[in-house]
Design the sequence.
């Protein structure tokens, strides 16, 4: 079997928010950096696990066939397609929850935390600022970002931003898969980080069977909303996140 030659897919100008120490003054990757990125893409294309390469603004630089398959049933959207920008997809696409299960707590809140951390590092990034403006334009999402997110981050701790190794639920469109969960592997160290890139791979595996009806549900994990009086709970409304506050019930009710 003859292997097709690898295509150099990273030629051309380097986007401004991707430029790192290996980019030249003209905004071009040098030959070694370009070859390094191409080899990363070739490795991603060789795996059956969904894998995608993003820049500092979560623009998708490259994604493999398994990634495309995972999101193949997602409908069109003008600004939030999974092949364009993963942050926008998670936050703004109305069908994101059809693939990314437990959408609010497992995906939206961690990505809001990623947005907050990225804006702290680079408050002038135009793509991130545009996402922040869209959140501000929606009162419900704005409340979730300003009030619900800090509360959730206090509960979760450092894992709120560092999602490498996190296990999350997904719904695979292939009927051969039942309940699926994935471990998120996030690599942005070394040369990849210097180029302003990170590779995210979703290691799919079948989820454990759900408890039977007569079995008590296990205690909530630390990052799950418990709904105690006064807690901020994230829910969904109008296609976006919203913040609900669970206040104590009046005495005698």
Sequence:
């Amino acid at each position: 079997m003859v292997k097709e030659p690898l295509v150099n897919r990273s030629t051309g100008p380097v986007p401004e928010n991707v430029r790192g120490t290996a980019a030249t003054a003209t905004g071009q990757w040098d030959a070694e950096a370009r070859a390094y990125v191409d080899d990363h893409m070739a490795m991603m294309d060789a795996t059956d696990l969904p894998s995608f390469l993003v820049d500092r603004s979560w623009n998708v630089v490259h994604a493999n066939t398994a990634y495309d398959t995972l999101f193949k049933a997602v409908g069109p959207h003008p600004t939030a397609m999974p092949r364009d920008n993963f942050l926008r997809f998670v936050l703004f696409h109305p069908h994101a929850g059809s693939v990314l299960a437990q959408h609010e707590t497992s995906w939206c809140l961690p990505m809001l935390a990623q947005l907050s951390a990225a804006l702290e590092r680079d408050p002038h990034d135009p793509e991130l600022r545009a996402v922040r403006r869209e959140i501000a334009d929606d009162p419900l999402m704005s409340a979730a970002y300003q009030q619900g997110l800090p509360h959730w981050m206090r509960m979760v701790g450092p894992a709120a931003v560092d999602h490498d190794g996190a296990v999350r639920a997904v719904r695979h469109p292939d009927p051969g898969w039942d309940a699926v969960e994935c471990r998120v592997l996030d690599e942005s160290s070394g040369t990849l980080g210097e180029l302003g890139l990170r590779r995210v791979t979703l290691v799919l595996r079948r989820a454990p069977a759900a408890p039977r009806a007569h079995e008590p549900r296990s205690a909530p994990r630390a990052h799950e909303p418990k709904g105690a009086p006064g807690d901020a709970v994230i829910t969904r409304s109008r296609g976006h996140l919203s913040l609900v506050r669970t206040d104590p019930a009046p005495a005698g009710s």
Notes: Confidence is low (pLDDT under 50) at residues 1-26, 215-240, 242-253. The radius of gyration is 20 Å. Residues 165 and 232 are 26 Å apart (CA to CA).
